[in-house]
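Need residues for this backbone.
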C-alpha cells in the first residue's frame, strides 16, 4: 500500500511473488483495455494475429495498415481513460506508452496536455491535446504486438487515438 506523503509519487506497478522466493517482475501491461475498438469493425477482445489495423511510427505523416503479430490478454490491470480536445477517447493501462508528434514517449497516466495522433472517421491523422486523464479502475487489457510501432484504438470506432510504442523502456 502506498503511504500518503507530499514527496511520494506512484510511478507504476510491480508483481511480487505470492509465496516467497523469486524476485519482482515489472508488469509491462502496455496495451488497450477490453471493449476498445482497433478498427471500425474490430474490438481488441476479438483481434488475432494477422488482423490488419491502423498503425503509425515516428516520422510517418499518416497511418498505414499493418498486421497484428501477437495478442495476449492480461487481467486486473490498472487503467486510465484518455480524452482528447475533440472528445476522442481510449482506455488503456496506466503505463501504456504514447508518443507525441516529435517522438517523445510518455506513459498514458502522465500525458495530460500532450498532443497525440487521432483518427476521425475517414480523415487523415490529426494531432490533438489530451484534455483529461481519468482513472478507469482494474480491467483486462490486450497486449497487442504490431512490431515496435504504435496503433490506433478508441472507445468509439470512429474516433481512435494512437497509443502503444513497444520501443519505450520506462
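Answer:
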Amino acid at each position: 500500500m502506498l503511504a500518503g506523503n507530499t514527496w511520494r509519487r506512484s510511478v507504476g506497478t510491480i508483481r511480487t511473488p505470492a509465496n516467497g522466493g523469486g524476485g519482482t517482475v515489472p508488469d509491462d501491461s502496455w496495451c488497450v483495455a477490453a471493449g476498445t475498438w482497433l478498427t471500425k469493425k474490430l474490438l481488441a477482445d476479438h483481434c488475432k494475429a494477422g488482423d490488419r489495423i491502423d498503425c503509425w511510427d515516428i516520422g510517418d505523416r499518416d497511418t498505414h495498415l499493418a498486421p497484428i503479430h501477437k495478442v495476449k490478454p492480461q487481467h486486473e490491470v490498472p487503467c486510465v481513460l484518455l480524452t482528447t480536445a475533440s472528445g476522442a477517447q481510449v482506455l488503456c493501462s496506466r503505463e501504456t506508452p504514447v508518443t507525441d508528434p516529435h517522438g517523445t514517449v510518455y506513459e498514458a497516466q502522465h500525458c495530460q496536455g500532450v498532443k497525440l495522433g487521432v483518427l476521425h472517421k475517414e480523415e487523415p491523422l490529426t494531432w490533438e491535446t489530451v484534455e483529461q486523464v481519468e482513472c478507469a479502475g482494474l480491467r483486462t487489457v490486450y497486449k497487442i504486438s504490431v512490431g515496435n510501432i504504435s496503433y490506433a484504438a478508441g472507445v468509439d470506432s470512429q474516433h481512435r487515438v494512437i497509443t502503444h510504442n513497444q520501443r519505450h523502456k520506462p
